């Protein structure tokens, strides 16, 4: 897909995010908006997905297709919107987010059999281990496709992340591309103040990862270029870590760059202000 | 009293290792994972025959559970192995979210459960694992009683779709069940039919219950002994049928009295038919260093204590 088209999808996904969070008056818009461009680039450009008659189809085993895992499950709005816009389930279902009897739980779950989700996440630090397991499963199945996983930068404070970080190079999990959303923010404030997890690239390199950076993590052309670079480095005995520099709340001026919009929903007025900044490109749900 | 004899003593963990060897040969999807305890878990034969299907995780149990959950995606059947303490309490949230809530076909296989791991002491003697695991929705909880039953259970859980907690131990104990038994998850085993008291036992306590049954018989008390190897789902029918006949029950387990087999049986009684129940279990405490026999005696879990509990239960009828 052309960069311009990807940007159009991203604009609609951002509209979906603020509308979903507004409708239930809860959820996490900040990180969702920041990672919108990555998820759109992955699902609409980079990932090889199973299709039938021109439509994506979902099965749990995901053999011979690329897999994506969201470890920082609280940014579920962006994932749900991207999955729906890609065609995994009807976009109308986005209106049920976080409401009773919805398949779109506050944090992603397989429990409700929502197409596109392969593991529950929300309790942080677990997703990379799961992605590594899925990548090992692909190797055992002689399946050449790729596994992607996204984590938050605050999430790097979890110990399990570093167990997984040690494991993947040791076992030469070189069909795995991991991302850290470097937005520098977490619930209690800037990550550098809450718990300084500086020099993440150097840390992963020391653990044996191949590390690359996408400095403009909200610029579609930069992301697509970075994704191709990451893909090109697969298969050489090392897992790939992509440091994705994003802005929390990107795309909505009053939400940008602050941890205050980590887990707060906009009111009616703020919703209107946000939507005025985001072009409706694919039709609201 | 039906006679149970044995020609050898073996550890249940070796039964697990033997079961894994069979699975390695029979089921190409079975993958074994271990957190730096290959010798203790008796995985050598599986690893020798299937090196590509063994994943050494190092001393990183949380990651091992996550990797196991991921391996199921693509159809693998991971057996995640370590000591019971590190397989449950240490990684409860990982099991809860990545395995149980996610409905993953992971087998958590835990050795060195209970007091009878012995000299290592309370840091390693988990007595709360059955409770933690049975509280997880969808989790099957199995605690086999000897080498043969552990081997059979290991092979059986590979055929069961869904998460399983398989608990076994370190000490050598009599091998008294059939070598060629068929293991049915959730189905109680009638060890001995009786009329005066039902003794419902799991794990290492089944042999203690058999010895208690012989002591009681000598005193003219006819004990029905039931082996509940599957604590969840519980064979309620077998329990109700037995207490309908005997009118009282003793539960015996190598676990805290809070949250274990005894409480599961008590729930069945409360819902269906109230009869006196006596617990043979650890009385809400941690363990300590000692030999397995010394510990069973000190913490009130040996045959003698089962005999006393049976008499108390009968007296309350």
Automatic annotation (TrEMBL), chain A:
Any Pfam family the entry gives: Transketolase_N
Location of the Transketolase N-terminal domain: 8-274
PANTHER family xref list: TRANSKETOLASE N-TERMINAL SECTION-RELATED
Gene: tktA
UniProt entry keywords in alphabetical sequence: Thiamine pyrophosphate
Origin: domain of life: Bacteria
Family, as annotated: Belongs to the transketolase family.
Entry protein name: Transketolase
Cofactors required: thiamine diphosphate
Keyword set includes GTP-binding: no
Automatic annotation (TrEMBL), chain B:
Entry's transmembrane regions: none
Pfam families registered for this protein in UniProt: Transket_pyr, Transketolase_C
Residue stretches making up the Transketolase-like pyrimidine-binding domain: 10-175
InterPro entries attached to this UniProt entry: PDH/Transketolase (IPR051157), THDP-binding (IPR029061), Transketo_C/PFOR_II (IPR009014), Transketolase-like_Pyr-bd (IPR005475), Transketolase_C (IPR033248)
CDD domains assigned to the protein according to its UniProt record, in alphabetical order: TPP_PYR_DXS_TK_like (cd07033)
Domain of life per record: Bacteria
Protein name (record): Transketolase
Species for this entry: Dyadobacter beijingensis
Classification of source organism: Bacteria, Pseudomonadati, Bacteroidota, Cytophagia, Cytophagales
